[in-house]
Amino acid sequence: MSSASTDSDVEYDERQLRLMEEAIAAYERGVADLSSLVAGLEALLGCLRRADAEWKDRFQREWGQLEDIYSVATYRGCKKLDAQAMKDLGAAVKELKRLIGERLRHHGERASSP
């Protein structure tokens, strides 16, 4: 793979990661609902070109928590999540944000190394 192709893939992945951050921020501001967050993060994860399998697995585990919470709430016909679901959701979102930041730092380190 050429260096230009690799650089292009890194830039593409950075854009997807930034879109993940934006999706989470929109959810936290109440602009997007949980369904949109779950679908958006899943789509963006599938678009990543250069993320290693271990990182993707960790991200998918946390994303799966969001999906489970959403699925249970939908099945039960809940309009509002209970306290435990909100706590679990907050923990998963926090970890997703950490993982995205970790990946963006990794990209930044690659860009600054000779």
Outline the structure in words.
There is one protein chain. The chain is mainly α and 114 residues long. It has a single domain (3-109), classed as Four Helix Bundle (Hemerythrin (Met), subunit A) (Up-down Bundle). It contains four helices and no strands. The protein has helices at residues 3-28, 34-47, 53-76, 83-112. Helix 1 runs antiparallel to helix 4 and helix 2 (34-47) runs antiparallel to helix 3. The longest helix has 30 residues, at 83-112. The radius of gyration is 16 Å and the shape is elongated. The two termini are 18 Å apart.
Task: Give a brief rundown of this model.
It contains 4 helices and no strands. It is an all-alpha fold and 114 residues long.
* Poorly predicted runs of 5 or more residues: none
Level of helix content? over 70%
Strand elements, count: 0
Please tell me what the overall shape is. elongated
What is the average of the pLDDT values?
91
CATH topology name, in short, is Four Helix Bundle (Hemerythrin (Met), subunit A)
- Number of helices, where a helix is a run of at least 4 consecutive DSSP H or I residues: 4
